[in-house]
Amino acid sequence: MPIFEYECEGCGHQFEALVRSGDVPKCPSCGVENLRKLLSLPVVKSDSTRAQALKAAKSRDQKLGTERTQEQLKYERSHND
Ligand SMILES: [Zn+2]
Predict the structure, then answer these.
(1) Which of 4, 15, 57, 59 has its CA 20 to 30 A from that of 51?
(2) What is the DSSP letter of 46?
(3) Which domain holds residue 18?
(4) CA of 26 to the centre of ligand 1 (A)
């Protein structure tokens, strides 16, 4: 699960959040969803860690792509009889 760093546009609170795809993080301080994603990733400390993170992201995207294809197939099948 990727960890992102956010800054709240409302109150300026900075925090890290675990974000699953489809989730919308909220400011834990004031509860708004108006957040700015910060580019710094404190969990990535070296090039090898970064490469592993990229690899993990890539395989996750592929997995999502597979799920999307299966959904598409299911949709086509259910509309094809
Ligand atoms: Zn806030």
Answers:
(1) 15
(2) S
(3) 3-78
(4) 8
